[in-house]
Amino acid sequence: MSRLIGNLFCLSSLIFLIAAFIGLLVANLFRKKKVGIKSRYKKFFIYNIICCLLSLIVGICFVLKNQPAYFDTKYTNNDILNNLGNTHPVINQTQVASTNFPVPGDQIYLRLFKQESILEIWYKHKNQQYRLSKTWKICTFSGGLGPKKAEGDGKSPEGFYVTQRNLLNPNSNYHLAFNIGYPNAYDRSKGYTGSYIMIHGKCVSIGCYAMTDKGIEEIYALVSQALSSGQTQVPIHIFPFKMHTANMKKYQGSAHYAFWQELKPAYDIFQSQRRIPDINVHNQHYIVR
Predict the structure, then answer these.
(1) Same domain membership, residue 195 and residue 225
(2) Marked catalytic residue, from 10, 52, 139, 208
(3) Of 19, 40, 65, which residue sits at a domain end?
(4) Active site residue 200
(5) Is the pLDDT of residue 267 over 70?
(6) Which CATH number goes with the domain that contains 191?
(7) 121 and 199 share a domain?
(8) Which residues contact 77 (CB under 8 A, 6 or more apart)?
(9) In terms of domains, do 48 and 107 share one?
(10) Whether residue 51 sits in one domain with residue 116
(11) Shared domain check, 33 and 131
């Protein structure tokens, strides 16, 4: 939202700045023709220019404030988690003692279901199968069911994404955040646009997936731990709903049904085999194996 406000400030100030310069130009032309212009009009143009410049500066500040401050070193992420641990118990001893809690070196995998409003973290220890670690309630997302297609459409995306260490943002305006990597190869092949789609805290969303602050602390800690202990990317699969037979039948009349059929094989493979499928994009379609 602050990015949008900043863009509006910048655009409006540039328009008025151009108008002010045109006004001064016209005033000078009249003066050369010896047509009197009262001093108060000159002052008005000067004040207008000053206000436009101030508005432009404010707009730039809003835009810069909303840019994510990414960190790309193991030291930085660990240092942030240690600092959080002093005030927010991100990974506590009860969790560490749990048999369902990932330890450094474990691979993790995120699944989100819009209709059920849940985020799951699964983990795999060494050569074992994936096991469910924990399920969190998604506080809010926006735009209803269906894929995100355009910048500013307020839609939370669906599909197959990944996050990595340089996409973590511990200094987010929304407590903690990580970018899911939208648009992916499929989205780009379709010409879909958008940026800065996050999983974050603060329970507010305009296209992102928002969690409670407590929830994002736990999720962020697990993602950061995995990326700091050998996992290069964390897969994030976002489904419209749990794609079992009953739900597929329920939503078969949707305009998004053909797209959802491309997501379903990934859901089925993980449900039956507890493995993350290989996913590619060919001719603007997902290929899932």
Answers:
(1) yes
(2) 208
(3) 65
(4) yes
(5) yes
(6) 2.40.440.10
(7) yes
(8) 71, 165, 168, 170, 224, 227, 228
(9) no
(10) no
(11) no
Q: Which of 139, 175, 200, 237 is catalytic?
A: 200
Domain match, 92 and 208 both: yes
Residue 43 shares a structural domain with residue 171: no
Other C-beta atoms closer than 10 Å to the C-beta of 201 total 23
| Whether the predicted pLDDT of 101 surpasses 50 | yes
Annotated catalytic, 237?
Answer: no
Task: Please tell me the pTM assigned to this model.
Answer: 0.71
- Report the domain count for the chain: 2
- Domain assignment of residue 6, given as a range: 2-65
Higher pLDDT, 45 or 155: 155
pLDDT digits (tens, 9 = 90+) for 54-99: 765 655 555 444 444 333 333 344 444 444 443 333 455 445 555 6
Are residue 102 and residue 139 in the same domain, yes or no?
Answer: yes
pLDDT at 27: 58
Across the chain, mean pLDDT equals 82
Look at residue 100 in the predicted model and tell me its pLDDT.
85
